[in-house]
Amino acid sequence: MLILDNNNHSVFLLYYHLIMVVKYRRKVINDNISNRLKEIFENISPNYNISLQEWNHDKDHVHVLFKAEPNSEISKFINAYKSASSRLIKKEYPQIKQKLWKEYFWSRSYCLLTSGGAPIEVIKQYIESQGEKK
């Protein structure tokens, strides 16, 4: 059964799939670093009405599934997260600086996809059929 979120003025279900890549695709993410990156995400996300649903990593990128609210400023959150996590990871894991000699941990670009709910074609058909007599 689908359970919708709500606030004072709206009902919603907003899932996002975020993929962030390490600068120069350096292979620096291990389980410890991934766990710390996840912890930082969980600390910052409530400030933006975002909640982590799933997290996983490869050596050079992370995949994040999160829920948001209509008032979530997603791009501001992603920038705040990338800045804070980059600073903290390089401070707590100084060996990373050998592979990432500049100030950045993350690539500037990222991939953000909406996900969840019905497939696009089903939604299109539903909208197209509105007002039709059955």
TrEMBL record:
Classification via InterPro entries: Transposase_17, Transposase_17_sf
Residue ranges occupied by any Transposase IS200-like domain in the UniProt entry: 11-130
MF GO annotations: DNA binding; transposase activity
Xref: SUPFAM superfamilies: Transposase IS200-like
Pfam families from the xrefs?
Y1_Tnp
Q: Which GO terms describe its biological process?
A: DNA transposition
- Protein name in UniProt: Transposase IS200-family protein
Q: Which organism is it from?
A: Thermoanaerobacterium thermosaccharolyticum (strain ATCC 7956 / DSM 571 / NCIMB 9385 / NCA 3814 / NCTC 13789 / WDCM 00135 / 2032)
Task: List the top taxonomic levels of the source.
Answer: Bacteria, Bacillati, Bacillota, Clostridia, Thermoanaerobacterales
